[in-house]
Amino acid sequence: MIVELRQVGREFRRGTTVRALNEVDLDLAAGDYLAITGPSGAGKSTMLNILGLLDRPTSGEYLFDGVATSGLDDRRRSALRGASIGFVFQSFHLLPGRTVLQNVMLAFVYGRVPRAERIDRATEALDRVGLTHRTDFHPGTLSGGERQRVAIARAVCTGPRLLLADEPTGNLDQANAESVMQLFDELNADGLTLVVITHDIAIAERARRRVGISDGRLTEFAR
Ligand SMILES: Nc1ncnc2c1ncn2[C@@H]1O[C@H](COP(=O)(O)OP(=O)(O)OP(=O)(O)O)[C@@H](O)[C@H]1O
After folding, report:
1. What is the count of structural domains for the chain?
2. Residue 111, phi then psi, degrees to nearest 5
């Protein structure tokens, strides 16, 4: 198992208490492809932050790749995140003043990849997403779909065990969204474990498993 959530809860206390996640159980095996859907405020971002080791549950346990993460201090959690989890966001998060290749190489800033290997691995990731012809371009000159594919190259070039995507097609037109979803299908076929948060049912249908969140509770839909 890559992900095991055991009765995970996350409460926020700001005057009143909000239970953003409530006794959530979830298992993700290596190679799974999961979509998470739900209305605004249901707990999707909270779930992604917990899965990505950006936030901690207030109850329950999260095992990542068999490791109980509640026992890890912040430094170890960051190291695990950097080595094992890739992120893709709706708004791409590319640096406009850097080239495509340089943006992908930002993934290695906190990692342990030897300097000499970095260009090769970034170039290989750009080849994987079909953008070798854009290596020296700046993000501002690319289409939305190309920008998202750069962000995906940056997320996968470190060889993560899990890729987390938050509304990855939210800023894309249908054709560009399709190219990104096609790429996700290919990455998953190559064995990458994927979790995609989306409002879009057509996008969620691409995943092999689909869960809905409502008021912090998770329900898996039969396929
Ligand atoms: N840092 C925080 N402090 C207080 N409450 C929070 C915090 N983060 C989230 N919440 C609350 O937890 C609940 C779940 O929020 P979350 O952002 O996970 O929902 P979401 O499904 O991602 O919504 P959206 O689709 O609008 O992004 C909401 O009631 C929200 O107000």
Report:
1. 1
2. -90, -175
